[in-house]
Design goal:
156 residues; mainly alpha; Serine Threonine Protein Phosphatase 5, Tetratricopeptide repeat; 53% helix; elongated
């Protein structure tokens, strides 16, 4: 599906600027990054919404096996996380290191994103290849205090 047929010229320009093929809504640039992933990482809510409405595939993976949700967590934009979740993105996708978006967010101190993912049903039991969970990866006291009772309740 073509960018040109579906979105205004300004978004076609955005796609070209970021190295995407305007003839393919799911084209890739560096490291297998899709336009949707790029918009999520840059925190560009309106572009992300247009891409979603145009049918961009939310579950494409880049070369590191991250989906757009990972990039939304990098941007620390709850609204983008919510948009992707509304479009049935795989919340528990594990990348080449078996890290999930929840584990990444806990490891980078993004409390609001951690809470958003947990409330949306992220699996707290997922582990990296080294056996680390989101709780093990928590880098702030607020995330640790939030996650710890969830793990205690799960093991009870």
């Amino acid at each position: 599906m073509s960018f040109r047929k579906l979105i205004p010229d300004v978004l076609t320009a955005w796609a070209k600027q970021h190295g995407f093929d305007c003839a393919d809504i799911n084209s890739r640039s560096n490291n297998g990054t899709s336009a949707l992933m790029q918009a999520a990482m840059a925190g560009e809510v309106e572009i992300l919404r247009v891409l979603l409405s145009a049918g961009a595939d939310v579950n494409l993976l880049n070369d590191d096996e991250n989906n757009a949700l990972w990039f939304a967590c990098v941007s620390n934009e709850k609204i983008i996380v919510r948009e992707l979740l509304k479009h049935n993105i795989h919340i528990d996708n594990q990348n080449v290191n078996a890290a999930t978006s929840l584990i990444y967010s806990a490891s980078t101190g993004k409390f609001d994103i951690v809470k958003e993912l947990v409330e949306a049903g992220a699996d707290i039991s997922k582990q990296t290849l080294d056996g680390y969970t989101a709780l093990d990866s928590a880098t702030t006291l607020s995330i640790l205090k939030y996650l710890k009772p969830l793990y205690s309740a799960k093991s009870a």
